[in-house]
Amino acid sequence: CYSIPILSSFPPPGTTVAAKAHGARVNHRDDTGQTALHLASETLNQPAIKLLLHCGANVNLTTTGTDETALHLAVWSSSCKAAVILAAGRQCVELLLLNGANVHLKNWEGHEAIHRACQSGREDIINLLLSYGADANSLTNQGETPLFLFLEKTINIRKTRLLKKLLSLSYPLKLANYEGRLPKVLQLSSCEHLKDMLIQVSLEVWSLQDICKFNIKKIYSGNMKYQLKGIIPTLLWNSMYVQKESSYASKARNVW
């Protein structure tokens, strides 16, 4: 058996059968604890990712020591400045998800893929992860939510639509991490009004009806929400999915 190296110019899919016939070990780790799929995902090499998955690469294997999956690495690389500008990496992330990448696996810092996507504010990647069931309320080892990491970068404050979305998916609203620190954006004097409003709404006690509505939206998210149309009253469906009531985004709407 031999391991499959990752090359800048990967062999075409037609070599798959030959590789298997010669005993290629697609899940072999290199000296750093990475598999070929990890390296292909980190470099956003879509043809290589496709070939490796076709050869049977384990999409959810983690790196040695850091517990990073191929999805973590692809999302991270898609979130770097150059990738954001070029809108690169989405197809690689989607390819991994289509082949069973688990959005809930955490790395050594307790980060899921959604945390990394939110830190960069890459809206298309965030929406893609959410459509596959990523948890907008997941906490890192430091007690930081995806929203917290989104608000760690000043540039993200301009992304009002994404901020509203993350607020609409948050419950309970955790603004500070385990150390009691607020995200950097909320420490800015220019964002004092936003900070005060978010702190105010985070202290509100939700009614049982609002909590039930939120949990229904959490279960029936993405395209699944249309399964409820025609089953529950139209007014109720609209209040949850159109007006987006029962969310921190609606309670803090006067901020916008």
In short:
The protein has 256 residues and is mainly α. It is 44% helix and 2% strand.
Structural write-up:
The protein has 14 helices and 2 strands, in the order E-H-E-H-H-H-H-H-H-H-H-H-H-H-H-H. A two-stranded parallel ribbon has the order 1-2. Helix 2 runs antiparallel to helix 3, helix 2 runs parallel beside helix 4 and helix 6 (90-98) runs parallel beside helix 8 (123-131). The N and C termini lie far apart (60 Å). It is mainly alpha-helical. Strand 1, helix 1 and strand 2 form a beta-alpha-beta unit. It has helices at residues 16-21, 36-42, 46-54, 70-78, 81-86, 90-98, 113-120, 123-131, 146-150, 160-168, 192-202, 208-219, 234-241, 248-251; strands at residues 2-3, 24-25. Mean pLDDT is 87; it is low at 1-10 and 13-23. The longest helix is centred in the last third of the chain and has 12 residues, at 208-219. Helix content is 44%, strand content 2%. Pfam families: Ank (PF00023), Ank_2 (PF12796). Keywords: ANK repeat, Repeat. This is Ankyrin repeat domain 61.
- The order of strands across the largest sheet is 1-2
The mean pLDDT is: 87
> How many beta strands in the DSSP annotation?
2
Structural class per helix/strand content?
mainly alpha
Cα-atom Rg, whole angstroms?
Answer: 21 Å
What does the overall shape look like? globular
Element order: H for helix, E for strand: EHEHHHHHHHHHHHHH
Percent helix among the residues?
A: 40-55%
